[in-house]
Amino acid sequence: MKSTYTEKESRAVVMLMGCETIDLELQGRYMPKCYPYSYLMVGCPAVFVNPWKVIDMEIDILGAKLYEKFVARSNDDDKHGITAFMSEARNACHYPFLIGASTTCYGIPTKICKKDNILSSQLPSKPKRKHSESNT
Questions:
Q1: pTM above 0.90?
Q2: How confident is the model over 2-17, as pLDDT tens digits?
Q3: Is the pLDDT confidence value at 125 over 80?
Q4: Where residue 100 falls among pLDDT bands split at 50, 70, 90?
């Protein structure tokens, strides 16, 4: 049986700006479930998560500042990825060492490029996977 979930591809940077978004769901002997790992498995280059409880207003400020800096400053000549703007976003919080430090990035360094007024992640294209169907 083919899984449609693993066949999907994504190039989006995911920002899970909520409380404890890295929680693992244990499943006995099997690999634990976790939203960030699921996003990475389908090809998202980077995922931002919070390992502990955060204040809503503070994490909203951090997320908005990170997004603002990343989109406003990213261009083809810029060599900085999204993680380069984390320190500026953390300093925008009232509690930079508590709430600001909670945001963690998993994945690879990612930057965006503007092509024909469309924002897209700059990653090499991935070859399509070939699945063999077995008749059992």
A1: no
A2: 455 555 677 778 888 8
A3: no
A4: confident
Around 41, how many Cα atoms within 13 Å sit in the side-chain half-sphere?
A: 11
Coil, helix or strand at residue 76: coil
SS3 state of residue 113: strand
| Every domain of the chain and the residues it spans | 4-121
Query: What secondary structure letter does DSSP report for 59?
Result: H
Minimal CA–CA distance to 68: which of 49, 89, 91, 50?
89
With b for 16 or more beta-carbon neighbours within 10 A and e for fewer, the 20-47 pattern comes to ebbeeeeeeeeeeebbbeebbeeebbbb
- Asked if residue 100 lies in contact with residue 64, where contact means CB atoms within 8 angstroms, the answer is no
**Exposed e or buried b per residue across 77-102, where buried means at least 16 C-beta atoms within 10 angstroms of its C-beta:** eeeebbbbbbeebbebbeeeeebbeb
Which has the higher per-residue pLDDT, 72 or 38?
Answer: 38
Q: Could you give phi then psi for residue 105, rounded to 5 degrees?
A: -110, 130
